[in-house]
Amino acid sequence: MPDTEDPIELPDPVVEVDSASTAEEGSVPDRIDAEARTGASGELRGRRSAFFRERSDSVSPTAGMESPSGGRWTDAEADQQIRTFLVRLAGDRQLVHRDDPVELLQENDLLLLFGPEEETAFADLALRFPDETVTRWATLLSGGDRTEAFGPRSRAERRDEASLVREFQIGMRKRAMGGILLLGVLVLVGFGARALLENEPEDRSDRSLRFSGSTITDIDGEPVLRLEGGPPVAEPTLIAAADRVVAVLRGDGPPENRIQLDVPDVELPVRPGLLMATVFEHRGGQVALVGPEDWWIGACVRVTVATDSLRPLDVVVHESKEGACPAGLGGRAARVTCVGPAVLMLGVDIPQGGVELDEGGLGWAETIRFGIEAAPGTASKWEVLSVRGAITVADASGTREISVPAFGGAPGDVVSVEIGGAIEECTLT
Fold first, then answer.
1. Closest alpha carbon to 231 in 269, 270, 280
2. Helices 131-141 and 116-125, interaxial angle, to 10°?
3. How far apart are CA 41 and CA 22, in angstroms?
4. Would the pLDDT of 132 be above 70?
5. Which position has the higher pLDDT, 192 or 372?
6. Mean per-residue pLDDT for 220-249?
7. Quick one: DSSP state of residue 304?
8. 313: helix, coil or strand?
9. 98, 70, 77, 79: which is closest to 136 by C-alpha?
10. 301 phi and psi, to 5 degrees?
11. If we measure between CA atoms, which residue out of 348, 343, 323, 345 comes closest to residue 333?
């Protein structure tokens, strides 16, 4: 072509000459016959004859176009953006305007103007096209095979690449934010751990079971001083009843799914509320249990001294006959201090003050849990069946300091145990 510096390769050989040269060489009939076979109008043939005579600059008409941002366009919005792109691509060339951008492309042979830079600009624009528009234009620009659109990559591949870049950037931002949050959490945990290590443990002595050689007890509204060596009179605030039933059926599955709330009294080792318990000081800590006559014969009794969080400090188990307790029931054998028809007194270890725990920290003896455990036989339907209660120190904010009452006596002495107005006798061992 006379007015083009660089040669342009087309799928089919195209020879472009002006009217003077065709007149001289006698090729006008051939060109007319070829164009007649295409069915193109005279106006279209005129534009095609001068299409590549437009002077091309080194800068693409689409250079400097801003990359679109935001969500997807509608079909109408995408068509409007494509028409704007095609008009800019055509530059100063004469165009036959069509509302449909596909018709505008085909009528004006604008596909021939797409080069690498134009393809890149159009691919950026296509990131916001609807899926049907992307498919249609990928097919148009690739000559029927959209996997070859825009050179070695399809428009879908470019869109996927852009999506991956965006996701990568979002992931990096999330990772940065996560790192900042993690750093903040570590700083807070560090300050919290430092505060815990620097601060002394809370002293819970006022809420623990404390011994005293003498104690003041209210009897019929009158304060009475009980000296060491007197009879065992219970502190009213340190009396509790075994009134909580724990029953788990035998079977498969998690134990919590086999818990029973209603159990007939005849199946229980003792009726709820009949067994009372309190704590004394006599050669160490003593837990006295008082119930119906001969309630303890054949029974399995377990007593646990624990912290407020139920961390055991001492566990004792007493069974009056072999096999009365369930197999594997934890605890050391209890020492019987006093026994009578309705009274059973067991020695327990009640630490005074804070106790250093094996897992770290300090603990105080703040509650005594007691109960009668039924031994599940081979024909029993119960895996666990017991009646339990707990002795706890009342709120220490009252006007009176609460201490464990003491009593005296020697082995063989018969003492009267007073619990809540009821008096029962037992013999010290």
1. 280
2. 170
3. 20
4. yes
5. 372
6. 77
7. E
8. strand
9. 79
10. -115, 130
11. 348
**pLDDT tens, residue by residue, 317-343:** 999 888 888 888 889 999 999 999 999
Q: What is the pLDDT of residue 335?
A: 94
The gap from C-alpha 194 to its chain's centroid, in whole angstroms, comes to 26
Under 8 Å between Cβ of 278 and 238: yes
> In this structure, what token pair is assigned to residue 170?
């979002």
321: exposed, middle or buried (Cβ count in 10 Å: 0-12, 13-18, 19+): exposed
With H, G, I as helix, E, B as strand and everything else as coil, classify residue 389.
Answer: strand
User: 258 to each of 93, 241, 255, 374, 389, how far by Cα in Å?
Assistant: 87, 25, 5, 17, 21
The pair of structure tokens assigned to 427 is: 């013999």
> Other CB atoms closer than 10 Å to residue 410's CB: what's the count?
6
- Cβ-in-10-Å burial (0-12, 13-18, 19+) of 141 comes to buried
Those residues whose C-beta lies under 8 Å from the C-beta of residue 52, and which sit 6 or more positions away, are 1, 3, 4, 8, 16
The whole-chain average pLDDT of the chain stands at 78
One-letter amino acid for residue 135 of the chain? T
Of 340, 338, 363, 336, the closest CA to residue 352 belongs to 363
How far from 199 is each of 196, 202, 207, 359, 373, CA to CA, in Å?
5, 9, 20, 18, 42
135 falls in which pLDDT band (50, 70, 90)?
confident
- Torsion (CA) 90, 91, 96, 101 in degrees, nearest 10: 50
The predicted-structure confidence for 22-81, as pLDDT tens digits, reads as follows 334 444 444 444 344 334 455 655 555 555 545 455 678 887 777 777 788 999 999 999
Q: SS3 for 330-363, per residue? A: CCEECEEEEECCCEEEEEECCCCCCEECCCCCEE
d(CA 2, CA 49) in angstroms, rounded, equals 12
Instruction: Count Cβ atoms within 10 A of the Cβ of residue 419 and give its class: 0-12 exposed, 13-18 middle, 19 or more buried.
Output: buried
- Gap between the Cα atoms of 429 and 426, Å rounded: 9
